[in-house]
Design goal:
single chain, alpha+beta, 5-stranded mixed β-sheet, 165 residues, 10 strands, 3 helices
């Protein structure tokens, strides 16, 4: 009887070890699918590239949430903006907001009701101004929609790059 109990314990321990070793992205995706809840926190790398070099880069835990800027006020930034998603999801602008709050820098953006989204205007005191803008990309590809509409996933790299016209 003891060898069977020992084997069961060994198999259970091995299975638990494999489950814990699985990639976090797969675990998050499985949990999202199982629960139907899409706004689970994800860990992404947020990178901010200014005209003179890297301003910020760090991994951040984020999810879609209400965002407040000095210029734009408080608005949702959870992927439901503009009807992009039926339920809340993590977004690039929400990730920038979390990065700023947790790392002691500011950003500002204008709210455009017609787009149901923010335009990122200033990050860490660097403004786009009349000759540049803050381009948002995920994994090196510019987002086709606003930063409060695009869904990001665990492991993504979210970049805000100062881009001249």
């Amino acid at each position: 009887m003891r060898p069977t109990l020992f084997r069961r314990a060994a198999v259970t321990t091995a299975a638990l070890g494999l489950a814990l070793a699985a990639t976090p992205g797969a675990a998050v995706a499985e949990e999202r699918a199982a629960t139907g809840f899409t706004n689970l926190p994800v860990r992404v790398t947020v990178s901010v590239q200014g005209p003179d070099g890297l301003l910020f880069e760090k991994k951040v835990l984020t999810w879609g949430h209400d965002v407040t800027t000095a210029t734009g006020g408080t608005h949702k930034c959870d992927g439901t903006n503009g009807g992009a998603h039926a339920s809340k999801v993590p977004t690039p602008t929400a990730a920038l907001d979390h990065a700023a709050k947790r790392n002691g820098f500011t950003w500002d953006g204008t709210w455009y009701a017609s787009f149901d989204d923010f335009s990122v205007d200033t990050v860490k005191g660097v403004s786009g101004g009349g000759s540049a803008y803050w381009n948002i990309s995920v994994n090196g590809t510019p987002t086709p929609v606003g930063g409060c509409q695009f869904e990001i996933e665990h492991g993504d790299t979210v970049s805000f790059v100062w881009t001249s016209f």
